[in-house]
Amino acid sequence: MDIKLSEEQEMLRNSAGRFLEKNCPSSLVREMVEDEKGYTDELWQGMAELGWIGLIIPEAYGGVGMGFLELTVLMEEMGRVMLPGPFFSTAVLGGLAFLQAGSESQKKEYLPGIAGGQLKVTLALNEAESIYDPGSMAVSAVEEGDGFVLNGTKLFVPDAHVADTILCAARTDQGTEDGITLFVVDGKDPSIRTKLLKTISGDKQFEVVFNEVRVPEEKVLGQPGQGWSPIRTVLQKASVLKCAEMVGGGQKILEMTAAYANEREQFGRKIGAFQAVQHHCVNMLVDLEGCRWVAYKAAWMIHEGMAYEKQASIAKAWCNQAYRRVVALGHQVLGGVGYIEEHDLPLYFRRARVAEAAFGDADYHRKIVADQIFTYGAIDRIQQERIE
Known about the structure:
The chain is an alpha+beta fold. The protein is built from 12 helices and 10 strands. The strands form 3 sheets. Strands 1-4-5-8 form a 4-stranded mixed beta sheet, with helices on one face. Strands 2-3-7-6 form a 4-stranded antiparallel beta sheet, with no helix packed on it. Strands 9-10 form a two-stranded antiparallel ribbon. Helix 8 (275-303) runs antiparallel to helix 9. The two termini are 13 Å apart. The relative contact order is 0.10.
């Protein structure tokens, strides 16, 4: 495996870093926590003009036509600045869902709008009793006339307040564990009610209530009753991209911590001269390099069209806890300074906790890897990979 970035990928990283450093300072992130919308039109349009929202959408549908590795590079840079707004929900959750399950006519209808920034999309999946689990999903879709009627409540739906389109997973078949269908729902339908949920990071996640929402048959995304397979694929890829975000955030935290250790003096010396502080920074780097390796290996496997489910879950299980350790060690070095609200570290701490829960915590992904090892014979494959 060679994960050295190509010249084009390096150019993307550098240009994205410059744009985001200029247009998304931490002061803007703080403002957007309090802002009702949670992002600025100027920043959104700027990203659209750069082609970022349609980065992996094929040129035939108005996108740039780059690959998953390029999107991973971009997500790392966005993680460095804690980018606010509906990019992840639209370009990742929405874009990947249409690419994975959409018919040709649906791709032609929706993907150009996503790529151009005119259409904001989100995925309504989780419920009070159903967290990434099709078996306990209760939101129902009952066939009626030439369409379906949706009823029920979804939780933690990102950016639902600005979404033009909501991709809603609902149960259409009570007789199977799957029986899930993915619907393309008008986000502005008056029968939909949204309520902002209070989260630790102040990001925009919503309770979305579907009350007799009517959806025509042609708005089914994929095959009726077989919606969980594309959803699972989207979640796996999204978890890898969330890992890339954590890599970017961890890199920024390490840089802030090392800079502080080189400036702060105690007992007549820079604190960076003390072995304990040096070891904290080294341990941060070790965790960060581990995150970068497992995340980019998973991204490379997706990019190359290889089987990646086990590696995606290994990456998310490791990054969830390693990123938390990086933040904790940053707090250890900065001391009280790292806890005041005017400092950026508390912002990264809160984002780390949200990222840890997104698309499954460490235990959730360990269970997936365990199933691969003990149920599907992955031990033999791992041994074979080692020999080869």
